[in-house]
Amino acid sequence: MKAHNLSDQELVKRFIQGDRQSIEVLINRHKNKVFTYIILIVKNQQLAEDIFQDTFIKVIRSLKEGKYKDNGKFVSWVIRISHNLTIDHFRKEKQISTYSNEDYEADIFNSKKLSDGTIEDILVENQIVHEVRLLIEELPEDQKQVILLRHYGELSFKEIAEQTDVSINTALGRMRYALINLRKLIEQKNLSLTKS
């Protein structure tokens, strides 16, 4: 049976038994999802590539050390590792949101409506995105995490629940409180997050 047709669990098992090709198949199978998740959060191509590489180094090391528990959620486990490495990076930097979108060709908030706008509209939109990102940083860690995973990582609430080891209801509750807290912060700071 070709390695490409095997499940993640079977490939993990084969890699642990010494089959190096299995890890290559796993990386190729999930690289787009993992890299997209990282780039959406860090918004810097070079940094995303570094964290992506560190993620799979840690994945390989953890597999060899027997730290992976086979629960059928390999890609969720990998994304959790990349998320933790991203958070570690930002903690070391002591400043989040210091990376511009200049190194990244497509802004994640870009839309058809925006591309038809004037330079002023685009500048205002970029300012809004920046202010929202700063507001997200003021949220409690669990609420910030659910917003990043949902809106930047585009994970479903089921995937978020798996990622964070909580129930779907808890993940939904954290999102609800995050949105309530964001509204409060917008009111407290008297911000106008509209283009008009």
Description:
The protein has 196 residues and is mainly α. The chain folds into 2 domains: 95 residues, Rna Polymerase Sigma Factor, Chain: A (Orthogonal Bundle); 89 residues, Arc Repressor Mutant, subunit A. 69% of the residues lie in helices and 0% in strands. The chain is built from 9 helices and no strands. It is elongated and about 60 Å long. About 11% of the residues have low confidence.
What topology emerges from the helices and strands here?
Elements: H1 8-16, H2 20-42, H3 45-64, H4 74-93, H5 112-115, H6 119-137, H7 141-152, H8 157-164, H9 168-188
Helix pairs in contact: 1-2, 2-3, 2-4, 3-4, 4-8, 7-9, 8-9
Keywords:
Arc Repressor Mutant, subunit A, 196 residues, Rna Polymerase Sigma Factor, Chain: A
CATH top level of the largest domain is: Mainly Alpha
Describe the largest sheet: none
Q: What percent of residues are in strands?
A: under 5%
Known CATH architecture of the largest domain: Orthogonal Bundle
Structural class by sheet pairing and helices: mainly alpha
* CA radius of gyration: 19 Å
Question: SSE order in H/E notation?
Answer: HHHHHHHHH
Fill in the CATH topology of the largest domain: Rna Polymerase Sigma Factor, Chain: A
Q: How many beta strands in the DSSP annotation?
A: 0
User: Can you give the helix content as a percent range?
Assistant: 55-70%
Kindly report the oligomeric state of this protein.
single chain
Q: Mean pLDDT across all residues, rounded?
A: 79
Number of helices: 9
State the CATH superfamily name of the largest domain.
RNA polymerase sigma factor, region 2, helix turn helix motif
Q: Based on CA inertia axes, which overall geometry fits?
A: elongated
Total domain modules: 2
Unreliable stretches (pLDDT < 50, length at least 5) are 95-116
